[in-house]
Design brief:
- This protein is of the alpha+beta class.
- About 25% of the residues lie in helices and about 15% in strands.
- The protein contains nine helices and 17 strands.
- Strand 11 and strand 12 form a beta hairpin.
- Helix 2 crosses helix 4, helix 5 crosses helix 6 and helix 6 packs across helix 9.
Amino acid sequence: MAPGLVETIHYQSRGKDNSVSRSIFPDGIKTSGQHPPIFKELKPYDSFPTEIIGPTAWSTDDYRDRPEKWTHRFTAEEIEEMSEAADNFRAAEIPLTGISQENYRLPRLSAFLESVRNDLLDGKGFILFKGFPVERWGNHKSAIAYMGIGTYLGYFISQNGKGHVLGHVKDLGEDAKQIDKVRIYRTNARQFFHADDSDLVGLLCVARALEGGESDIASSHQVYNILKAERPDVLKTLTEPIWYFDRKGEVSKGEDPYIRTSVFYLEPGGKGRVYCKWDPYYIRSLERFSSACIIPPLSPAQLEAADVLESTCKRFALHMVLEVGDIQFLSNSQVLHARTEYKDHAPPAPRRHLMRLWLATPESEGGWKLPFHDREEKKRGGIQVDDVGPVAHLDAE
């Protein structure tokens, strides 16, 4: 047997309703963090569907020339409601990490956001909001309103070992080639098709790049169908729990520095949907472990599968450009996303800047039933290191 396939998995369950210190976690809920799957709930390739049908398996042709089906421009009334809610929240002097539906009220817009949430979870899995007045409001008020919208879609979770619940996608000059240490969102490098460690992800465009930095998305269900028809050997490899994902040092005491899992899963029960977890940077950054024979290196079949998955996503991608004031929300369960390499404006012009949210949607509130120990926790997924509390800075650090 290959090394690493029988290693002890260090999983520390935090429990479904464990109490935490509100002095550290203002809303009383702690991000669960990254965990290996429940291996006995993983299904063999023969159990997967021959074809995925329905709104989640969309084709680029369905939307390329029909932006009205996937964009929503905020109306003056909606902006006024968000503005009033943000002003009230700021006046109450509540920290951003304590924002919730209770203290950021949207009595009219909330019904529409509920329909958006349903479509993200059970439909096409993406939407692009336009016309958010980020330049007029500035970073602080924009962050309040943006996170406030997020509370109607899910629970915000930590995105890194520092507890950032409001992330900032911005080039900080870090070396993208050091993939075992550097998170790519902190560089200007191309991001290959991937899914984040959250149920939903949001991106608010604060400033655009001079060139590039454009967005591509693909239905992982459509990609699944293509692979099933054209490369079933590749798809089978992607369903096997032989893939190691790097945690890049963002681990709690006693946890392994990587996770073994598969790329495509079946929901264990529930609706039996196909779930995708993927990021090629995180499988290619593990040489420090494979060279020490702690885990097996990527096999030729795995390397080919990674390349075929990327090329298939590119063939069937929907391209979009995020303008200042646009907000993109995606479901990581059935949508993969990518970003082109970019070049920033010369100083003193602002650098490309996107505010990012990772949102959790627990099973008890309509989220997908996933083969993970934390699937019923409100803040499932994300990245949690020990008891690092949530922070919401207004810019990158």
